[in-house]
Amino acid sequence: MKSAPFIAVEGPIGAGKTTLATMLSQELNLPLVKEIVEENPFLASFYQNIDEWSFQLEMFFLCNRFKQLEDTGAHYIQQNSPVISDYHIYKNMIFAERTLKGTKRDKYRQIYHLLTDDLPKPNLVIYIEAELDTLMYRINKRGRSFEQNMDPAYMKQLIADYKTGMNDLAKGENPPVILKINAEQLDFVQHPEHFRQIVNQVKELMI
């Protein structure tokens, strides 16, 4: 890579983004930027009524991630120092395009581009793919109260939206390198050799 690696770990809810990002941060001695999730005051309401609360939810996430990435740019990217994050800002559009409708979606698109177009973007994205049953199992296992009534139909659509979103990201302007990890084949938590395989791939791409 010509510039210092800015790595993002992505995937649908329950894919293991934060877990893998944390493990890689420790293994590669990289600072970690973690997204704010449970602090969002609209989460519980959103899962009870998506149409009513989606705009408030997405705006909270967007503003928090904007501030995080603005600081990341100042502290690491501008200093040409490597860093890893457990999200890519583009995930905001993946979720918003599904949950928002009409004028709210149009307004959100405008605000998204206004805030993010000049933010630093990852040059390496680790995209974790997983099947519906695996995601639902992991969501139930981690026990977040607001996720316990997660609609499988919503999750199934989210899997499809992520595949489309990652393809769009790969075709965009200055696209990142995308490393796909199949969570059905590589259990990086339970099998150290699987994690080592991922580490080796990431190291090769960081050069």
Automatic annotation (TrEMBL):
Keywords on record: Kinase, Transferase
Coiled coil: none
InterPro entries: DCK/DGK, Deoxyribonucleoside_kinase, DNK_dom, P-loop_NTPase
CDD domains listed in its UniProt record: dNK
Lineage top rank: taxon: Bacteria
Record-annotated Deoxynucleoside kinase domain positions: 7-205
Molecular functions (GO terms): kinase activity
The protein's name: Deoxyguanosine kinase
